[in-house]
Amino acid sequence: MAIANFTYTGLPARVIFGKGSLQQLETEIDRLGSRRALVLSTPEQRAQAERIADILGERAAGIFDKAVMHVPIETAREARQIADKLGADCAVAIGGGSTTGLGKAIALDSGLPILAIPTTYAGSEMTPVYGLTENGLKKTGKDPRVLPKTVIYDPELSVSLPVDLSVTSGMNAIAHAAEGLYAQDGNPVMSLIAEEGIRAMAEGLGRVTQAPEDLDARADCLYGAWLCSTVLGNVGMALHHKLCHTLGGSFNLPHAQTHTVVLPHAIAYNASAAPEAAARIIRALGGKHDSAGAALFDLAKDLGAPMTLHELGLTEPDLDRATDIALSNPYWNPRPIEREAIRELLQNAYEGKRPA
After folding, report:
1. Angle of helix 188-210 versus helix 275-284 axis, rounded to 10
2. Nearest 5°: phi and psi at 17?
């Protein structure tokens, strides 16, 4: 196979992986040269934030537990003010994409180093990508300042993640790798990582649904999440992520569940224009399908995931507006963006129609 020309720039990353790796938190704070850490979490994960603060003792400057989906700019501003008021010289973000996203919003203005402790499989922790929602529109960007300095992956912390959320979080991670396979700035290294990430995540999720407390299965999922998010951090995304940002930022649909529902349809839309990417997805998912979209659809269905935008709260009249927003700003995609085809894609996702 001929290798196309490519440019590869590796991002700096320090990953501490394994059961019980949370025990290395204090050492990692020392490596950052920090003394006062602001602990970030969602309201629901306050108890985990308090555990982190207990481990840090006097090094914990305080807890800010107001992280929410899509990082409203008002919440980001409040967190920055609290960090400044408490004299924090780093932030520890424990949780999923919402908490990591809040940490990034703090780092974007202050340059405060972030240490991420993922408890989901969303993958924001390995990327310089940030997002802020203002006036109903989610805007994203890239900045090396927001990339967490250290990431601690401890499977023990993800055991409490309910199976349904584990599934949608894992499908969200697979979406990063799937789109990375046909990225405009893709390269062979990221393609290898993407395929392995999809394989590990799919296998891990299958076992987690059967035995949620299986630490080895949880470790496989975290391993897959790390790989998939590494892809997200290194190459650009396309149609799938654009649609999900539209549905999340403008219609307040839940992030991971939206990725889960849309992914098979977006990949099916692009498959004819990216046949090698489609083949890799099929291979990573066992090689039993003729269609990458169908393979992803069947995976989600077998895992008991939500299958329609309707059940996530979108209404049919919303589909036209969602199409308008998704087409409002030009962006690269392997297949040309065609209004009628995008509207059909969203209709299929709304109804949960299996890709051919």
Report:
1. 30
2. -125, 135
Q: What is the pLDDT of residues 256-315, one digit of tens each?
A: 999 999 999 999 999 999 999 999 999 999 999 999 999 999 999 999 999 999 999 999
pLDDT for 135 beyond 90:
no
Measuring CA to CA, which residue among 198, 95, 218 is closest to residue 151? 95
Extract the tokens encoding 238. 């396309």
Please tell me the distance from the alpha carbon of residue 226 to that of residue 242, in angstroms, as a whole number.
Answer: 22
The set of residues, in sequence order, having a beta carbon less than 8 Å from that of 193 and lying 6+ positions away, is 177, 227, 230, 231
In this prediction, residue 138 carries a pLDDT of 78
Tell me which residue has tokens 């993922």.
118
Residue (of 113, 122, 115) closest to 94 by Cα position: 115
Token digits of residue 206: 């299958």
- Backbone CA torsion sign across 232, 233, 236, 238: positive
* CA separation for the pair 179, 302 (Å, rounded): 22
Q: Which two tokens stand for residue 49?
A: 């934030």
Q: Which amino acid is at 351?
A: E
Q: In the predicted model, is pLDDT for residue 321 greater than 90? A: yes
Please name the residues in contact with 172: beta carbons below 8 A apart, sequence gap of 6 or more.
97, 121, 122, 123, 255, 256, 259, 260
Query: Do 147 and 125 form a contact (C-beta atoms < 8 A)?
Result: no
pTM higher than the cut 0.85: yes
Pick from 121, 101, 128: nearest CA to 235: 128
Amino acid at 102: L
CA distance 56 to 48: 13
